[in-house]
Write a structure and sequence with these properties.
Elements lengths: L7 H16 L4 H11 L3 E7 L3 H5 L5 H9 L2 E7 L5 E8 L1 H15 L10 E6 L2 H14 L9 E4 L2 H7 L3 E7 L6
Parallel strand pairs: 4-5
Antiparallel strand pairs: 1-2, 1-6, 2-3, 4-6
Length: 178
């Protein structure tokens, strides 16, 4: 078992790569080494439009959740090098947080806007936002076509912690920091 230091479709992306390596005839040891060497290069950028679920779990205080809701603030989050979720920016409005998510990819992806590797999006009952993000990436990253970017549903376990309206983006880039 390998700790991906992440979750959701990012973990699935590592499994997908491992299956490709198996199909190419790579050994278990080669695959394990590749995953351990590259897991911190897999970025997890995500946000949720509701703070209710973070409040219920104790991750956000009641007053902070209420203020975020009133001001329409969506925290932009990621996994750090220890596999912990950190909120690193507070963005007002859904359109702005989707744009900031795409900008984070441009900032961190291998080759910036020339990135052409795997790119996956996962959503929790917000397919329109997922499609909007995909459209931004196709427009801004010249190597992508619409069907190159896969969209998945976030599973029930993660959704029970983050709530509906959660959108996540997964791609490879620079090494994740603390």
């Amino acid at each position: 078992m390998i700790d991906s230091l992440g979750a959701c479709s990012g973990y699935g992306m590592l499994v997908d790569i491992a299956a490709d390596m198996r199909d190419e005839g790579k050994s278990f040891e080669e695959t394990e080494k590749w995953i351990l060497d590259n897991r911190l290069h897999l970025h997890y950028q995500f946000y949720s439009i509701t703070m209710d679920y973070f409040k219920r779990s104790g991750r956000v205080s009641g007053p902070a959740a209420a203020i975020a809701t009133i001001l329409n603030i969506c925290p932009l989050m990621r996994f750090n090098a220890e596999g912990r979720i950190i909120a690193y920016e507070k963005v007002r409005g859904i359109k702005n947080v989707i744009r900031k998510t795409a900008e984070a990819m441009a900032e961190h992806a291998d080759g910036g806007k020339d990135y052409s590797g795997r790119c996956w999006i996962a959503h929790s009952n917000c397919i329109d936002a997922a499609e909007e993000l995909r459209g931004m990436i196709v427009k801004d990253f010249r190597h992508f076509k619409r069907d190159d970017i896969k969209i998945f549903d976030i599973g029930t376990i993660i959704t029970s912690h983050t709530g509906p309206g959660t959108l996540a983006l997964f791609f490879f880039g620079d090494e994740r920091k603390m």
